[in-house]
Amino acid sequence: MEQSFRITEIPQLRSISGTISAISVQVMPTYSVQIDSYLCAESTALCVPVINGRVYTKAFNDLSVATPLYVKHQVGQWQPGNSPTYIKVQLNIWWQ
Fold first, then answer.
1. Phi first, then psi: what are they for 45, rounded to 5°?
2. How many angstroms separate the CA atoms of 19 and 82, rounded?
């Protein structure tokens, strides 16, 4: 499963320009399920693992702030009969 984020889809930021200087991500599933998440940039093969539900990284420095980002989730050890799990993601981007 993937969740995509395009800063240019936010009406107030459609004409934004600049480069990324840092990103933080927090992943919060509704249930205690084994989920491996990765922050990735669409224009590169670079993905950064989200460890223990959080990551702060400068790995995407110098990419355009308009670069589409996505968080990829891989659910492990899912058992039949488990309740549905919803995943809330908080993404913060700093740019210059």
1. -90, 5
2. 42
